[in-house]
Amino acid sequence: MAPKLSKNKGGKTSKSDRDEGLSASEDHEEVKLAGVTQTSEAESSDAETSRESNPANLDNIFQAIISLKSEFSAKFESVLTILTDVKNQIGDCSARLTEAEERISQTEDTVDKLQSTAKMLEDKIKLLSAKTEDLENRSRRSNVQLVGLPEKAKGRDACGFLENWLPDALGMEPLRSPLIIERAHRIASVRSEYKAPPRALIMKFLNYKDKVRVLNAAREKKEVLYKGKRVMLFPDFSAEVSKKRQRYNEVKKKLRAKGLDYRFLFPSRLQVSFNGTLYTFENPGEVETFLDNPPENTKLN
């Protein structure tokens, strides 16, 4: 406890009394600091004593660290093993991919060669088909199709019947030499009904000029009859040419309705006579355009 300072008669504290009070206060502070220091040293000593008295705790911690290290090492080894397997698999996939790329490259080269060969063969087939088509039509150039003739009209000798009947039916002038037909036969087909239309008859003339004279006479005659029944004569062409010409059927009806003359040019071009001028068309569309927009703004009835 701090000492009390005495007062003089005037109520004032003397200088000696103040000095004594300060000295006593400083002594008290030093005692407090000494006590704190002793307490800290005692706590530190107790901690060291506790560690020295519990060596088992350090061993446990050390053993735990060793155990964690062993466990981590084992797991790390397993991870390394997995990574090695993955690396090997990636290497295997890379090798397979390289092999696949090589095979694809070889296949592409082979495909390019095959495409070139196929294109060459395709062109060759087109050329051969055109030649075959031409040869077939040349072999038919002396043929004429007769449509509408009754099945039993020709008798047993078809050639003799046609040689005698055609000049009379077509009104042909006396010929210097008679028509000679090499052979004649019906087009093979299955007649499902007894009253089915008669099959077309194909006749082959010995002389090409005779074939031309017969067709010209039929064109001039306009209507050829056999016992009151209408028959028609056409040039004989291959199936391909006939198919191309059939595409003009609709425009031919329109041309006939408008009174325009027309004829085919081999193989499948159509020639139309209009106001004394001949117009040649490559396909039915051109004929349609011609009919819709005739030349010189001439209206077609």
TrEMBL record:
Keywords: Coiled coil. Residues 83-138 form a coiled coil. InterPro entries: L1_C (IPR042566), L1_RRM_dom (IPR043636), Transposase_22 (IPR004244). The keyword Hydrolase does not apply. Pfam families: Transposase_22. Residues 141-233 form the L1 transposable element RRM domain. Residues 1-55 are annotated as: Disordered. The keyword NADP does not apply. Residues 14-32 have a biased composition (Basic and acidic residues). Residues 1-12 have a biased composition (Basic residues). It comes from the Eukaryota. This is L1 transposable element RRM domain-containing protein. It comes from Cyprinus carpio carpio.
